[in-house]
Amino acid sequence: MYSLSRMAATRRIPLNAEFFRKFVLDEIKLFPNVVKFLSELKSLSKRKDFKDLNLEVHHFIITAGLKDLVEQVFPKGLISHTFGCRYTVIAWKGYENEPESIPVFCMDETMKTRALFEISKGSFLDPKKPVNKRVEEHERFAIFKDIIYIGDGPTDIPSLSLTRYNGGMGVVVYDEKSSEKTIQEKLKGMRLDKRADLITPADYSLKGELFQFLKTRCIQIKQRYEAEESVN
Fold it and tell me: What does pTM read for this prediction?
């Protein structure tokens, strides 16, 4: 009788932004210094030499996590766009007070590569803009040579390969707190197949290897545009 009463009292909980904000957000713990790390890189856009070339640093998140949750983790304006799994809430007829969450988009390694094309072509800015439409390089939101893809697992391998094949850079990060065996198993294939330009711990300090690498790469991209302008 107790179990039946419990079942009768069970209600469906909508997996939406409001639910995540109330019950999940406080449990999310980012790596130390991540927000400052991203803010400092984004602030390069304010430098005069970047402004003169109309260059801006953008951060995108491509994740198999939940888009509605991830978007609440970071300060507004820091992330340009988030690609992730999505649910919609449906109230079935006769059960309006018990809405059900239905998955409408799931992210896998194939969809991660699609997200890269959406970023490059600017399709993410307009849902009606077809991602398969050919867009000339000079009309793109970001050419691949200007993209740095950061991944941490096997589902990122196709995106790392795609980015590097088209002239961009790939970075793999790993949690130093993981066991040595776990780290080696995760990174073995990426090292052997040369999937990344840099494999480094997930250290988000401003003096760390990751920050210095990304900042230097952004400056190199800026210098490439300066060289191209001087020729033209």
Answer: 0.87
